[in-house]
Design brief:
The complex is a heterodimer. By secondary structure, chain A is mostly helical. Chain A is built from 15 helices and two strands. Chain A is globular, with a radius of gyration of 21 Å. Chain A starts with 5 loop residues before the first helix and ends in a 5-residue tail after the last helix. The chains are: A mainly alpha, B alpha/beta.
Chain lengths: 368, 269
């Protein structure tokens, strides 16, 4: 397994934060960084996804011809897609079981699940098409779309690097100007994480991870950029603490450029996330030096991000059901968090153990 | 268009309401002569006015109607907004409300967008409200809420903070907001969180001087006085077609009384 590194560490950090944030009302939610930040772990997670893809494309997959690169990335997209389907189905079954055993039919409504029970024909088509998403289970569909377009991102960058940022900005701007988003169905609405907008942070992660282009520019000017990032991070902290949100009536058109929309990843959130990345980039060495074990644990989670994400989604739902049954209390909330983080670690360890076993078995001569 | 439902009250009730409300609606253009007069409700849904809502001002909706502009209403919330338990989407309360309002307010162009997402807590809806407002700029937001926060055991101060900050933000943006409260169901009458959320909504509405539709009180009145009438679906939680029809009538009643209250007193919820 790869050594602890910065990307895995921050990905692990984002995963733990998402787990806590996905249990609404949890006492410890107030200690997550979104309370002192305009952007939150979702932005960080997607930014790091773009970053990780660049490392793959420049590293192990660097020499691959286009068709094999496409195959490599699309197979990853398909893996995430199947993970989304399985996790969603498990969540639906958990809600159904809870509703059944607790005689609480209202649990079938949770997180927009009710269409599956009331309109199963349409809802199952929607689940497969990702147009029907459960609340709190809506990050992976975005991730699927982003990895699905990954080959286009990588190949466009290979062919004409400057064009990638131009196309990405254009799509992002069009989404904000015209309010473009993918529709949901059968429940009428639109995606909570708009891929047309969120692709920008994925592409920026991809570009900034490189040693050339924007990545080189940022590394060369890291000191002045950090000074610029500092007031942005402070302002973002003030927004997070005060819950300030601009009034659409008083901002010019196109309004989505000036509001703090999460769905459309308004520029303020985007810039704030980049500022945080600028400020904290390189801090891993110091963090790992002072807190080696927690850092190693977060790296373990980050190395196995898909498995951990799937498990945390289901564990957070367990936590919600538990809180419905037993009510809110700091003690039980603490238990949920501790047990949850331990189980995430166990899931990550199991995934690595399985990989190690597979590699060792592959070295053995075939025997009956 | 009014739609016939299983109880045979759809069109008939809408027309009866319309007949009653036209007399109230007409003065809108002629400077209200009988402000605050309660429109008649259909027999199954009839409840005392105080069990529906206390009037509150709706300046932005009234302004859009008086100018003859299209009145844009955003109905947002959870399963009771989407219409879970109804026989079809057209029986959801926003669909029926649009029909009732257009019959009652002759000549008014009213468009209600339904953005119900089942099982959603107020915090997530609040995030969607900000997006919808930026995209659609409604004149009125009908925010149905409370049940899921109670079931998810959201701490009351956190819930109140979310609701208050969203109401204030909407007011600053010159958008009227109406809170549509939790339903009455025997399943949850002893749930302390549920009752606390219900009281909290009343308190917030009174303090923020906004319209609050007391769905719980209205449904309880019907359940106690007309025990043979079933407002809930088979799960004894979601509303059925009649339940949604009554909900639409009650919201319409609250809106119209508020629209025609000449100088609406602050809501005494």
């Amino acid at each position: 397994m790869r050594a602890p590194n910065e990307i895995d560490f921050w990905r692990g950090f984002a995963l733990v934060t998402i787990f806590v944030n996905h249990i609404p009302g949890l006492y410890f939610e107030r200690f997550t960084f979104r309370n002192v930040s305009l952007s939150d772990s979702a932005e960080l997670f997607v930014f790091l996804a773009g970053w990780a893809m660049r490392k793959l494309v420049d590293g192990p997959a660097g020499a691959l011809p286009a068709k094999w690169l496409i195959l490599r990335l699309e197979s990853r997209a398909f893996q995430i897609y199947t993970a989304q389907l399985v996790v969603t189905e498990l969540a639906i079954a958990m809600l159904a079981a809870a509703a059944f055993y607790l005689d609480a039919p209202f649990l079938l409504d949770w997180h927009n699940a009710s269409a599956v029970f009331n309109s199963p024909v349409e809802a199952h088509i929607g689940l497969v098409l990702l147009s029907h998403q459960l609340g709190y289970f809506n990050i992976l569909p975005l991730y699927v779309v982003l990895i699905f377009i990954g080959p286009a991102v990588a190949l466009l960058h290979r062919a004409k690097a400057p064009l990638l940022l131009a196309v990405s900005v254009l799509v992002y701007a069009a989404a904000l100007v015209f309010g473009l988003n993918l529709p949901t169905w059968p429940v009428e609405g639109s995606w909570f994480f708009n891929p047309l907008a969120w692709q920008i942070i994925f592409v920026l992660g991809f570009l900034l991870a490189g040693e050339d282009g924007p990545g080189r520019f940022v590394r060369r000017h890291s000191l002045p950029l950090r000074w610029l990032a500092l007031p942005v991070a402070v302002l973002g902290a003030a927004v997070g603490m005060t819950n300030f949100s601009p009034d659409p009536l008083f901002v010019p058109e196109p309004k989505l450029f000036f509001t703090f929309s999460k769905t459309f990843l308004s520029p303020a959130r985007l810039v704030h996330c980049l500022a945080l990345a600028m400020l904290f980039a390189g801090s891993f060495k110091m963090i790992a030096y002072w807190t080696p074990r927690p850092s190693g644990y977060l790296c373990l989670l980050g190395r196995n991000s898909l498995v951990v994400f799937c498990v945390l989604s289901l564990l957070s739902l367990c936590g919600q059901i538990f809180r419905y049954v037993y009510g809110e209390s700091i003690v039980t909330d603490a238990l949920i968090v501790i047990l949850g983080i331990l189980l995430l670690g166990m899931a990550a360890w199991l995934a690595e153990w399985r990989d190690r076993m597979r590699m060792e078995l592959a070295k053995q001569p075939l025997s009956l | 268009m009014a739609r016939q439902n299983a109880y045979g009250i759809g069109k008939a009730a809408a027309l009866a309401l319309a007949a009653g409300w036209v007399s109230i609606a007409c003065p809108l253009a002629q400077e209200a002569e009988a402000p605050g007069a309660a429109p008649p409700l259909s027999p199954p849904c009839d409840v005392p006015g105080q069990d529906i809502a206390a009037p509150a001002t709706l300046p932005n909706l009234a302004s859009a109607l008086q100018k003859g502009e299209k009145a844009r209403i955003l109905a947002i919330g959870s399963s009771s907004t989407l219409g879970n338990g109804a026989s079809s989407a057209s029986m959801s309360y926003p669909s029926q409300l649009e029909t009732i309002l257009e019959h009652a307010l002759k000549g008014a162009d009213i468009v209600i967008v339904n953005r119900g997402v089942p099982g959603e807590i107020a915090e997530t809806t609040a995030e969607r409200i900000r997006n919808e407002v930026a995209l659609r700029k409604p004149d009125l937001v009908l925010w149905q809420l409370g049940t899921n926060d109670a079931l998810a055991r959201i701490p009351l101060p956190e819930f109140e903070d979310t609701v208050r900050s969203t109401i204030r933000w909407l007011k600053e943006n010159q958008i009227d907001v109406v809170l549509v409260g939790v339903q009455y169901t025997t399943r949850l009458v002893r749930d302390a969180n549920y009752l606390a959320i219900r009281e909290s909504l009343q308190k917030i509405a009174a303090e923020e001087k906004i319209l609050y539709v007391r769905r719980y009180d209205a449904m309880r009145f019907i359940a106690q006085r007309r025990a043979n009438l079933q407002l809930l679906a088979g799960d004894n939680f979601h509303l059925n077609d009649l339940g949604y029809h009554c909900m639409a009538e009650h919201v319409a009643h609250a809106l119209i009384v508020s629209l025609f209250a000449k100088r609406a007193k602050p809501a005494q919820n």
